[in-house]
What we know:
mainly alpha, Arc Repressor Mutant, subunit A, 2 domains
Amino acid sequence: MKHCPAVFKVDAVALYRSWPEGTIGQVAADVGINPETLRNWVRAAGVSRPRGRRAEVPAEPPTPLEAENTALRKKVRELEEEREILRKAAKYSAGETRW
């Protein structure tokens, strides 16, 4: 279990609050945390949204900066997954070489 700084928690909740069409799962994936963790932070902050069907809001095309941020977040997730795979492989290999 990793501990996140308070600033990170506040920023994650603010991102959830500012993204009306985003779900907790989507926001959590964007910031790289477990959805239940974000859900707990949102509850603790007292953030609420109307339930039920969302009003149909015409989708605006993302600005170039938003598109770049989305692409970079995706790349960071991919690189973190690759690093974790390599870390596990190195740990496994180190264990095999011992007699």
